[in-house]
Amino acid sequence: MSTPAQRARQLRDEIVRHNEAYFVHDTPLIPDADYDALVRELRSLEESHPELRSETSVTQTVGAPRSVVFSEVRHAEPMLSLDNVFDEEELRAWCDRVAKGLGRDARDISFAVEPKIDGLALSITYINGTMAQGSTRGDGRVGEDVTDNVRTIRNLPTTLSGVRDGRLDIRGEVFITKEDFHELNERQRQVEGKEFANPRNAAAGSLRQKDSSVSASRPLSFLAYQLVDLDSTLAFESHMATIEQLRAWGFVTASEIALVRGVDEVVARSTWFEEHRHELAYEVDGVVVKVDDLALREVLGSTSRAPRWAIARKFPPEERTTRLLAIEVSIGRTGRATPYAVLEPVLVAGSTVSLATLHNQDQVAQKDVRPGDLVIVRKAGEVIPEIVGSVSEPGRQREAAWQFPTTCPECGGPLVRVGDESDTYCVNPACPAQQLQQILHFASRGALDIEGLGEQRVAQLIGAGLIADVADLFLLSAAQLSTLEGFGELSASALIQAIEDAKSAPLSRVLVGLGIRHVGPVAARELASRFSSFEALAEASLDALEAVDGIGEVIATSVFRYCRDPETVDLVRRLRAAGLELRETKPTLEVPQTLAGRAVVVTGAIEGYSREEAEAAIVARGGTSPGSVSKKTYCVVVGDAPGASKVTKARDLGIPMIAGSAFVEFLASGTWTTTVE
Predict the structure, then answer these.
(1) Residue 202 and residue 137 in one domain
(2) What's the CA gap between 351 and 358, in Å, rounded?
(3) Residue 270 covered by a domain
(4) What pLDDT score was predicted for residue 655?
(5) Which residues pair with 227 in a beta bridge?
(6) What mean pLDDT comes out for the span 592-611?
(7) Which residues does 610 contact at the CB level (< 8 Å), separation at least 6?
(8) Which pLDDT score, from 0 to 100, does residue 588 have?
(9) pLDDT score at 592
(10) Does the structure show a pLDDT above 60 at 666?
(11) Three-state SS across 79-130?
């Protein structure tokens, strides 16, 4: 057992090591939640044993010393950090402390609540209205000069309209939108065979490059959240007034920022952010709550590392470390063999995780995770948990590298790697695992939505020899089902009725359900809209398929081959014989077709709409909403924190860009008055 002093030394050494990895090398070794746990343990020790506390302790300092790669910049006003709270109780306690410090009732204090973006803190100095310097936080007092790289960030104004004298520091976060991060990693995989772990690492690593051309090639964005008037040339009374001024100068700020009054509204708004975090265009790991009145901030002051007038409420962690117990392989509906991790159960994003995907053979090798390793597991919203990588454990002997199996764990058939692809497949069409997954996918909510066909039920039907593929579903009778365990007269009739109702499903849903490779919901809608029936789709030439907006060579080739495969021809014949219409039905709602025949791309967050809702609104009005910009694109709707690559391509092609604030107007009339330059 270590003494408190020994444990404190261990914790400080660990925290210093992690600070250097995170702030200097942009390669964190552990998730934020595990880092926060180390800091909280050390802070608790120092509170219990005051003799262990010192001004140089990592609990009293900010960030980490700058990298020697960059020149030194001394901040005119320190870039402090933020103290953290982790739940509603701690947030309420902070609000009460603020009220007590001001001698006021907490219900009478106004707070700004804004998203805490997971990026790299940056300070940009403007002298006499012109951008002069960009610097990282560093240790809070001395940062790194990254001016040349900052100038490559496309959404930053180089001059401030109406400002003729004085020095201003605009502080905020450099980040990469979720949309741009996905596209960046696609390029990384193709060019370098590897990818970035998360948007924060990608943004920090992209900005902190010695060669500014590398920064210029990355889709960096900047979100401003603080205006520091170094020479007192401006007059503001509130934080929200400074945000409005930043917007007027052309800076991107968080549109979701809200001015609330009292602790109950603070809690409610922070809860809203937690519930909607995955709908935002950028990654967030919490909210920041700030006293709005600038004069009251002066009264509250700051500690050596953090202001007393602001706090960060961290959300439940989406990344944690745990032990990897084993690596197994599952077989999907296409026969793809997917390795997955068996884990020591760990609480991630509010739920207990014991299994996580490892994607494919190459990913296991690239991440070099082995049974027995301490690994980082990530779960974002409804996304399947995945292994990010292993955590170094100096002195620990690792097991041998895991080897991908050569035979299917379900049917014993061979596992084959196709061409240059990274995926491995079971090539036995009679594999029971494939049959199960194909039928489950066909009946899923995104496809034909057949209520009552869950995994256990489908497995039961296959095991009883009643079905072997999706066409067999439509030959089932209530009498057959009533002989099976768990079925009564009512439940058997209900399932048969649900299957009967599925016969009238529109073609787009059937195409999703058939599981054609590379064809997701968007591509299925485009194809069904263009060809109206499966018969017309099957007869379409390869050129005709490629001509459909949003359908490139890869999807067109996949559809062309699928429709001509003898097994497909037989399956479709049986489905048609069973009564499926296999036609695209027109919407029953009378929505004006203001966007008929127009391809509209959406990028960034649109107020009042999730991405799926915005795309659905376009489709309902006769338009299409492909995921990429091309010469066929009619216009691009640009919301908050848009994808830099889509905006750049639209600008290069001369395609009109509509402000997200005009989206409702655009849906109603097909025209717009507010554009983006």
Answers:
(1) yes
(2) 19
(3) yes
(4) 94
(5) 170
(6) 88
(7) 279
(8) 53
(9) 87
(10) yes
(11) CCCCCEECCHHHHHHHHHHHHHHHCCCHHHCEEEEEEEECCEEEEEEEECCE
Which residue, of 456, 483, 504, is where some domain finishes? Answer: 504
Cα separation, 267 vs 262, whole angstroms: 9
Tell me 21's DSSP state.
I
Q: What pLDDT, in 10s, does the model give residues 323-378?
A: 999 999 999 988 999 999 999 999 888 789 999 999 888 889 888 999 999 999 99
Q: Is residue 293 within 8 Å of 645, Cβ to Cβ?
A: no
Q: What is the pLDDT of residues 573-598, one digit of tens each?
A: 999 999 998 999 765 557 888 998 89
Same domain, 26 and 157: no
> How many other C-beta atoms are found inside a 10 Å radius of the C-beta of residue 322?
22
Residue 290 sits in the same domain as residue 220: yes
- pLDDT value at residue 1: 61
User: Which residues pair with residue 116 across a beta bridge?
Assistant: 286
Q: Of residues 100, 116, 379, 503, which has the active-site annotation?
A: 116
Q: Are strands 386-390 and 374-378 parallel, antiparallel or unpaired?
A: antiparallel
* Beta carbons within 8 Å of 208's beta carbon, 6+ residues apart: 26, 67, 69, 70, 120, 136, 144, 146, 149
pLDDT attached to residue 64: 66
Helix (H, G, I), strand (E, B) or coil at 173: strand
pLDDT at site 65: 67
Q: Is the pTM of this model over 0.85?
A: no
E strands present in 200-247: 221-229
User: Based on the domain organization, do 289 and 412 belong to the same domain?
Assistant: no
Question: Does 66 map to a domain?
Answer: no
Bridge partners for 247 per DSSP = none
Q: What are phi and psi of 364, to 5 degrees?
A: -65, -45
Grouping H, G, I as helix, E, B as strand and the rest as coil, residue 420 is coil
Distance between CA atoms of 371 and 637, rounded to whole angstroms? 47
In sequence order, which residues have a C-beta less than 8 Å from that of residue 119 and are 6 or more positions away?
A: 173, 174, 175, 176, 199, 200, 203, 204, 223, 282, 283
Within a domain: 73? no
- Tell me the CA distances in angstroms from 326 to 355, 373, 374, 576, one per residue in order: 10, 10, 12, 45
Same domain (yes/no): 148, 213: yes
Question: Which burial class, exposed, middle or buried, applies to 657 when counting CB atoms under 10 A from its CB (0-12, 13-18, 19+)?
Answer: buried
Cα separation, 480 vs 478, whole angstroms? 5
Same domain, 572 and 629: no
d(CA 145, CA 278): 33
Mean pLDDT of 160-184: 93
Q: Are residues 174 and 261 in the same domain?
A: yes
Same domain, 568 and 628: no
pLDDT of residue 589: 54
**Domain end point (choices 314, 342, 376):** 314
Q: What average pLDDT score do residues 407-414 get?
A: 94
Residue 360 Ramachandran class (φ > 0 left, ψ -120 to 50 alpha, else beta): beta
Tokens encoding 285: 């790991």
DSSP one-letter code for 423: -
Q: Which two structure tokens, joined as six digits, stand for 83?
A: 């103290």
- 345 CB contacts (<8 Å, ≥6 apart)? 322, 352, 353, 354
Question: Up-side HSE of residue 655: CA atoms within 13 Å toward CB?
Answer: 23
Closest CA to 440 of 332, 524, 570: 332
pLDDT tens readout for residues 448-505: 999 999 999 999 999 999 999 999 999 999 999 998 999 998 999 999 999 999 999 9
- Whether 116 sits among the annotated catalytic residues: the reply is yes
| More confidently predicted of 102 and 26 | 102
Q: Where are the beta strands (DSSP E) in 520-669?
A: 600-603, 635-638, 657-659
Contact 203, 185 (CB under 8 A): no
On average, the pLDDT of the chain sits at 90
